[in-house]
Amino acid sequence: MYLSRSIPLFFLLFSLLLYVAICDDYLYHFCFSKENYTAYNNPYRGNLNDLLLLLSAKVPPTGFGLGSIGQGRNRVNGLALCGGDVSSTKCKTCITDAGKETRERCPDKKGAIIWYDNCMVKYSSTKFFGDIDNQNKFYMYNAQSVDNPTSFNKKVKALLSSLSGKAYADTKFYATGELDLGASKKLHGLAQCTRDLSSMDCKKCLDVAVSGLPSCCDGKRGGRVVGGSCNVRYELYPFVENW
Fold first, then answer.
1. What pLDDT was estimated at residue 154?
2. Entry pTM
3. Is domain 31-124 given the CATH code 3.30.430.20 in the classification?
4. E-strand spans in the chain?
5. In whole angstroms, what separates CA 87 from the centre of its chain?
6. d(Cα 222, Cα 98) in Å, to the nearest integer?
7. For residues 207 and 199, is the Cβ–Cβ distance under 8 A?
8. Do the domains at 31-124 and 137-235 have one common CATH topology?
9. Which among 188, 171, 170 is positioned nearest to 179, based on CA atoms?
10. Which of 183, 31, 168 minimizes the C-alpha distance to 112?
């Protein structure tokens, strides 16, 4: 079982646990815009619908895409990212579902972000491409703890710091890896950034995410820091399809 804490809320997401028990794909969302679009025929609504359709077609071949539709106050900017191990078919399905779900959870909001296991979708009336998103972030962690947290935490940091260095140099800003723990046990890790960032900003985002693990996941058997620009994860079991 996983527990979660979000920034800046810092509370346990019991409702999330209940939802995950029913559908393990959805993770979390934020309705971060203070601006609304209200009329049913509002141009922003139409542009948002068109943008989400564009992303569902543009993203699956490479796992990442962005776009903007409209002018002035009705302009919508958005991006979508799929996990580096996710197939094109699953990527498209995830983005389509995420687009529908976020409009239901954030009705009439001009800015929102939603995460699933396989993808992330974000849109806003403000152009955010190329900027590290430090506001929309949450943690997930395994409720079970390891026997030797001090030693384990050092190994988690070593693995994810190494993957951070590999991901920012990769063309897809994505890296996975393993660390042998002995006794036939392995620590599995992942690091990934959205590809609108520069390589150095990707590294910066991942390093901050790794540094945030002790505050959420101290000695836990698994954990994630999931943000609008990057995410890191570690587990004591394989969790990507190419392992």
1. 96
2. 0.89
3. yes
4. 2-7, 26-30, 64-69, 76-82, 112-116, 119-124, 137-142, 174-182, 185-193, 223-227, 230-235
5. 17
6. 25
7. no
8. yes
9. 188
10. 31
- β partners of residue 69: 76
Mean pLDDT by 10 residues, the chain (243 residues): 45 36 73 88 94 98 98 96 96 97 96 98 98 96 95 97 98 97 93 98 98 94 98 96 68
Domain ranges of the chain: 31-124, 137-235
Cβ count within 10 A of residue 43: 17
SS3 238: coil
What dotted CATH number matches 137-235?
Answer: 3.30.430.20
Alpha carbons 159 and 155: distance in angstroms, whole number = 6
Tell how far CA 147 is from the center of its chain.
29
Between CA 240 and CA 242 the distance in angstroms is 6
pLDDT of residue 149: 95
Distances (CA, A) of 82 to 11, 34, 88, 177: 27, 27, 9, 18
What's the angle, vertex CA 179, arms to CA 190 and CA 237, rounded to 5? 65
Task: Specify whether the CB–CB gap between 60 and 91 falls below 8 A.
Answer: yes
